[in-house]
Amino acid sequence: MECEEKIEKLLSIIERVASGEYERDNWRGILDSVAELFEADGAAIGELKEGYVYYTKVSSFIAKSGEYDPEKFKVPVWRSAFGEAIKRGYLIVNDYQSYDRAVEEWKRIGLKAKLVAVLGDKEPFGSLSVGRLRSDKPFTEEDGKILRSLAFIFSFIVREEIEKRRLMERAIKDHLTKLYNRFYFEEEGNRELERARRYGYPLSLIMLDLDNFKQINDRYGHQKGDEVLIKFADVIRKNIRRTDMPVRYGGEEFLILLPHTNLEEAAKVAERIRESFSKVVFREGSEAFRLTVSAGVASCEPEDCALENLLHKADKALYQAKREGKNRTVVFSHQGVN
């Protein structure tokens, strides 16, 4: 690409960012142009989180690959190109397959060359990266400097987006378990029920309650109780889909709203969670203990579905599970609780 054409494309990208185009397609179009500018197959913006960089905003080539998952392709901060890039603001890796800090998933898909620039200055919080899979053409120092300049411009906007999202998460998520809170459930749950009515798909609710949880707080203290709640939330996350809504409803009571899910399927999810949690071993000093959970499951037909009614049915089923001896799943039916 000729120098004049590069400058024209670079100015166009900056203009599109300044006009807020990223708000309309979550950066997809702009990152497509970034990839084109560097004659790369893909471009991505990554966010630093808990020791890893997660590339959550990606260009079309990456998004349409069919196998891209930010969790699967996350990059460890200090054992990767990103960790090295922090020293000078950018890093060029022109033989990624032989790079000693290469991430295996990126190697597996055939990444040949990578150029990464750091977002943030004194406190890096993410990265802007481009990569080549089909071309053997190396990136140049000029490419590195241009990408670093783009990263500097992007930093202000991406940081603001991250801060806004974190503020929103604090408003809608439980601070301890990081599951959705009751407020969010009541707001978004009603919207989900409305969508179920409109499009005619089944919807189910699981209500879960940790058995004998008060005894844990009384015997080992609230810190151990918090550990139990955090672990249970993790078990829930590992056993549901991304489209499901996990909620800490209050204390040791949890909900899961499952769109496009009938009663039988929801009961299987509840059982999977119950069985998984029963295998978790907690330790306090020389003592070891396990806990169980009881579950109530209910569903509603699209044409007759109200959140309050669904909660009532699931609560009634949960009450019976407790009454029958705990550590079990009970399903509500119109003929009565089974």
User: How much is the average pLDDT?
Assistant: 92
CATH architecture descriptor text of the largest domain: 2-Layer Sandwich
Number of domains: 2
Low-confidence stretches: none
What does this structure look like?
The chain has about 350 residues and is of the alpha+beta class. It folds into two domains: about 5-170, Beta-Lactamase (2-Layer Sandwich), CATH 3.30.450; about 180-335, Alpha-Beta Plaits. About 45% of the residues lie in helices and about 25% in strands. β1 (about 40-50) and β2 form a beta hairpin. α1 runs antiparallel to α3 and α9 (about 215-220) packs across α10. The chain starts with a helix and ends with a strand.
Q: Brief overview, please?
A:
With 338 residues, this protein is an alpha+beta fold.
Considering the chains and any ligands shown, give keywords for the structure:
alpha+beta; 14 strands; 6-stranded mixed sheet; Alpha-Beta Plaits; Beta-Lactamase; 45% helix; 2 domains
Give a topology summary.
Layout: H1 3-18, H2 22-25, H3 28-37, E1 42-49, E2 52-58, H4 60-63, E3 75-76, H5 81-85, E4 90-93, H6 104-108, E5 113-119, E6 126-132, H7 141-172, H8 182-199, E7 203-210, H9 213-220, H10 222-238, E8 245-250, E9 253-259, H11 263-278, E10 282-284, E11 287-289, E12 293-300, H12 307-323, E13 329-333, E14 336-337
Parallel strand pairs: 12-13
Antiparallel strand pairs: 1-2, 1-6, 2-3, 4-5, 5-6, 7-9, 7-12, 8-9, 10-11, 13-14
Helix pairs in contact: 1-3, 9-10
